[in-house]
Amino acid sequence: MPTYNLLPIYPHLTDRDRWLLHLLDEHQVLTTDQIHRLAFRAERTCQIRLAELRALDLLDRFRFARTDGGSHPWHWVLGLAGARFQAAATRRPSPTERTHRERLLRLSASPTLAHLVAVNEFFVRLHHAARTSADTSLDRWWSEAMAARQFLTVHPDGHGLWTTAARTVGFFLECDRGTESLPRLVAKLDRYADLVRRGGPRYPVLFWLPAPEREANLQHALRRMDLPIPVATATHDTDPTAAVWLPADAWRRVTLTDLPSDHGRDNPRNPNWRDGELNLHGHGETNPAAAAEPSG
Predict the structure, then answer these.
(1) Residue of 253, 250, 256, 202 lying closest to 229 (CA atoms)
(2) Number of CB atoms found within 10 A of residue 40's CB
(3) Which residues lie closer than 8 Å to 285 by C-beta, 6 or more apart?
(4) How confident is the model over 89-146, as pLDDT tens digits?
(5) What is the pTM of this model?
(6) How far is CA 151 from CA 107, 186, 244, 249, in A?
């Protein structure tokens, strides 16, 4: 039976467990497969450990039935003990059982759940690639909420810093699932252009699209514009670390590190700068993507 005196749980918590709790606190929900690729080598080891963390009420899970039979994957979230641990770690008020349960119900029933899982999938692919390559790293993985707090004027679905062979590029992710009109997608670029004018970073905006036809239509719209910022597109079925990104002003697909990227000027509105120095590795927030590689 779970206990809410958290101290007896501590001897059972590994560094990897705490890293996972932080990820779920920041990014809300991850599937079993995503957690496996993020932090485990063996699928069975992952499943056993998740069950153990659920027994401690550090994690909880849900899934829905498929129309054609079977079930969707398990979606993992913080349990009440996990939410209280993270509240203590981040100096937030500890949630009550009622408020925590209501939050999980809103998340599980949200019409944007599939979109959130897709956004996290993008970053999971980057992180998994970095785990298996010596010269690449995902140095920053910010959720929509974190990016909005740090950059103030933009609300991307996610923001990251990706390093390959000593070159670090930033990007803003716009994960599209085909539910918005193309004019609405294009209109989002105005805020990113305004960020650059205010001295913020000039990072490429990545439109990650559900199908080649959707990408072709968006590219057609983008090429009719005088774009003030770099824009590139790719589809969900591709490896985002490979040469799959088609710039809106070119005809050859390139990798993330081939895209233009400027970290911006030193000013109070640019979180890339701290005390007059370029600082791409944290701003008072724990960076899960840059955490030590979990073992096992």
Answers:
(1) 202
(2) 21
(3) 146
(4) 999 999 999 999 999 999 999 999 999 999 999 999 999 999 988 889 999 999 999 9
(5) 0.93
(6) 25, 20, 27, 26
